Amino acid sequence: MKVRNILATKKGHLITIDAEQPVRKAIAMLVDNRIGALLVMDSTGKLAGILSERDIMRTAATDEALFDRPVTDIMTREVVVGMPQDDVIAVAHTMLEKRFRHLPIMDEGQLIGIISIGDVLKIQRDAYRGEVDTLETRIIAKGEE
Amino acid sequence: MSPIGTATQPLRVAIVGAGPAGFYAAERLFKETELVIEVDMFDRLPTPYGLVRNGVAPDHQKIKSVTAVFDRVAGNPRFRFLGNIELGRDVTVDDLKEYYHEILFSTGAQTDRPLGIPGDDLAGSYPATEFVAWYNGHPDYRECEFDLSQERVAVVGVGNVAVDVARILCRTREELMKTDIADYALEALSNSQVKEVYILGRRGPAQAAFTAPEVKELGELADCDTFVLPEEAELDSLSLAAMANADRADVRKVEIIQELSHRQPSGKSKRLILRFLVSPTELIGDEHGHVRQMKLVHNELYATEAGSLRPRATDRTETLDVGMVFRSIGYRGVPLPGVPFHESWGVIPNNGGRVIDITTKEPLLGEYTAGWIKRGPTGVIGTNKPDAAETVENMLEDARAGRTLEPSHPTAEAVTSMLDERQCRPVSFDDWKRLDEFELNRGKAEGRPRVKFTRIEDMLAALRS
């Protein structure tokens, strides 16, 4: 099971924000799109970082004026990036161990999507459900192998 | 417009492709209690069940028992099977839009990705899926010829298709006699000169896609010794570290592979060798353009940023003498006429099963997809059940919101008349059950689970009799 199997059933519409935009706008975009993180792009259109709900919460705890600050001030700069051919199980462990919930996906230098820990959980849940279902069918079946 | 999904105007759904995803989608649609739904399931073959009939290996009969679940779905009075009707040949997507409120594409993945190396197209180099379809009696592939006079064969890939192909090549006639393998394949394989089969994986034992039971079975063949090279069975440091997080099933798989690396030859007449950390770089042919050798490069593993272990070529190479090559590095879907297609992944672009325009990413009204053509070829048969359920949830949501096609002839009778006018003779599910009985009876006479019809004209002739 690969990351591309997750991306295949997603819209693939990238929701990005410019690094100099205010956090207020970022929050509105997160709410409007019902997502948990935004990809932050620099002025040349390259991935500069990722802004997650966590980043906003962490800043909000100490800075009540965060709404007017530019996204670049509070985003996470060290972004782990995945590829379509990454194994989902390995990605799941990396997300758990490094404690992040969103993984941008690049293919041959192009940003092509983002997957969330929820996407990873869903495909694994479905894989396990499918295996249980298939095993049950086989066990119940009559006859020899 | 009158409401859709009532007894007077049922929600009419066309499912294109009668494999597991199509049946699971129909099953989920019929569980809906608020809407009255009718399903017409099309397939280009006269027979249903897709890869359960034409892909699952003939020596794995128990896996095929899932057809009992599909038969229950087909027993619903609001279900029709319209076999031997092909999208593009007999009907188009635009035609279907005139007869159905929603269309679901569940056509699966029928072909292999090429290796993309020099010599890929030499004689004797075949897609593994063609061999699978051939030995399973798929009417489109019965005329394929495989040069079974060769003694040494390489199967590239370590997924379940690769394992099936290698196992079938190594089975004895007696073992195959107990299966529903196609008659002609039984004869050809009985006369096969194949002595040595290599399964080639580009990563290590811990990353192989086959399962523990599949590899265990390889070690239990009646007249074939199975080996792993000891140096390739050992895990590298990255794989060892990753095993700390591995499932029990993966740990067991590695244990079985390592057990095979300690095996001594027991004098059986065939040999199956599982190789790891090698990639073919070239197929070399003789003066007749027939494959004779395969160049391999040895790989090492490296960890990607996201943590998966990928192969990287080293400077170590070797040459393997082989007269036949099966490539099995991944199924891929084929485009359907009039339906968007993601070329590099071989799937229909979609958002949770809603087909989307590849450029605008906006959903196409009334068009849906499920199964391998939706997510890519991954998982077991049962994985298609939650996959199809996700799509059907979205179909129902759209139907309740009135977001459906507006067909001008939304009745079963109108479809029958349209097919009639085009002189198409669909095979019904009752017809299929008759064919099924013929096949089972023919099998009984020979002490086999079934003897398949492998020509469409034979199937149709049997139905006329």
Architecture blueprint of SSEs:
The complex is a heterodimer of chains A (145) and B (465).
Chain A: H1 3-7, E1 16-18, H2 23-33, E2 37-41, E3 47-52, H3 53-60, H4 71-74, H5 88-97, E4 102-107, E5 110-116, H6 117-140
Chain B: E1 11-16, H1 20-31, E2 37-43, H2 51-54, H3 67-74, E3 79-83, H4 93-97, E4 102-105, E5 111-112, E6 125-127, H5 128-135, E7 152-156, H6 160-170, H7 173-177, H8 183-190, E8 196-200, H9 212-218, E9 224-228, H10 230-233, H11 237-243, H12 248-260, E10 270-275, E11 278-285, E12 291-303, E13 309-321, E14 324-327, E15 331-332, E16 350-351, E17 354-356, E18 363-369, H13 372-375, H14 384-400, H15 412-421, H16 429-446, H17 456-464
Parallel strand pairs in B: 1-2, 1-4, 2-3, 4-18, 6-14, 7-8, 7-14, 8-10, 9-10
Antiparallel strand pairs in B: 5-15, 11-12, 12-13, 16-17, 17-18
Helix pairs in contact in B: 1-14, 5-6, 9-12
Record keyword descriptors for this entry.
heterodimer; A: 145 residues; CBS-domain; 3-stranded mixed sheet; two-stranded antiparallel ribbon; 6 helices; 5 strands; B: 465 residues; alpha/beta; FAD/NAD(P)-binding domain; 2 domains; 7-stranded mixed sheet; 6-stranded parallel sheet; 17 helices; globular
Task: Walk me through what this model shows.
The complex is a heterodimer of chains A (145) and B (465). Chain A has 145 residues and is an alpha+beta fold. Chain A has one domain: CBS-domain (Roll), CATH 3.10.580. Chain A has helices spanning 3-7, 23-33, 53-60, 71-74, 88-97, 117-140, and strands at 16-18, 37-41, 47-52, 102-107, 110-116. Chain A has a 3-stranded mixed sheet. Chain A has a two-stranded antiparallel ribbon with strand order 4-5. In chain A, helix 5 (88-97) crosses helix 6 (117-140). Chain A is elongated, with a radius of gyration of 19 Å. The relative contact order of chain A is 0.18. The mean pLDDT of chain A is 92. With 465 residues, chain B is an alpha/beta fold. Helices cover 32% and strands 22% of the residues of chain B. Chain B has 17 helices and 18 strands. The model of chain B has no long low-confidence stretch (mean pLDDT 95). Chain A binds chain B through residues 1-5, 8-13, 80-87, 89-91, 93-94, 103, 125-127, 129-135, 137-138, 140-145, and chain B through 60-63, 65-66, 68-69, 207, 242, 245, 304-310, 342, 345, 347, 349-353, 356, 361, 374-376, 378-387, 390.
